[in-house]
Input
Amino acid sequence: MRLALAAIVGLCGVVVQQATPFRGGVRVVPIYASVVGADGRRLTNLTARDFTVFDNGVQQTIAAFDSQPRPLVGVAMWDVSESLTPHQHRIRGAAVAFAEAMWPGDRFRFGTFGTEVVFSPHLTGDMALLRRIVREEFWFGGPTPLWSTVEQGLATIAGETGERIMVVVSDGDAQGARAGSRKDLRVEIQRGDVALYAIGFAEAGFKNDLRGLADDSGGGSALVKKGADLNVEFRSIFEDLHSRYLIGFTPKALDGVEHTLEVRVKTRGARVRARRSYIATGAAQ
Output
C-alpha cells in the first residue's frame, strides 16, 4: 500500500537534532510536523532554522524544537459495527499488527464501537494484553456511532501528558442515534492537541468526512489495499509517528478563539503535514 498525502511514505532514519525544550508554566502551542521530500521520502534531519510557522498569517518565533523520537500515548478505536462484520478477520488482524508495531514506551488504550462502545481500562504497551483484548473483546454488530465514539476516545486521553494520538480504524460511515457532530469534534481535537489518524480498508470503503477530520488535526489518513501486509503497514505507520518534529511557539494573543496555523519548510519540493488550527486559550496543554 502507498498511503495518500496524509499517509506513511518512504524510509525512516531518525537523526536527533534538538533545540530549546518545552518548559512548564508557559503556554506553548505544540505542532507535530511530518515532512516528506519531493521524492516522497521522509526528511528527518531538519533543524529549527528550516521551519517557519505562521499564526493567522503572522510569522512566529519558534520557541521550542525537538526531533527526537518520543513515546506516544493514545487510544486506538476499532469499528466492529455491522458494516464491517464481513471484514472482521481483517479488523482483528490489523489490531494485532498495530500492537506488535508499537515502539518501546508507547502506551495505547483499545476501544471498539458497534452495538456497544467499550474501552479497555488501561493505557498499556503490553502486547500480550492487547492481543487478548482483540481475541476476547472484539464483538461485531450494530450501528456505527462514529462521532460520539471519537468524542469518548478523546476523553480517555484528555488528562495524559505527552504526544497524544488517536487512531480510528473504520469505514467512516457514521450511523445510529448517537452518531454525533463532526463539527464539534474538530474543536475538541484542537483543544486537546490530539493528532487523529484515520485508517480504512479498500474492500470496505472509506468516507471522506473521517479523512478530512484527520487531516485538519495534523494526523493523516491511510487506505489499506486489499491483500496488503498488515505488519508492514503498521510498522510504517509507527515509523511515521515517531519521526515527527515537535515545534512550539508562544502565541502573542490568548483570545480564546480559533487561529489558523501554517508550517513551511525551506527545502524545495518538500511537503509538511501538521495541524491547521488551534484554540488560543490560556491553559497550558
User: Anything to note?
Assistant: The radius of gyration is 18 Å. The chain is about 25% helix and 25% strand.
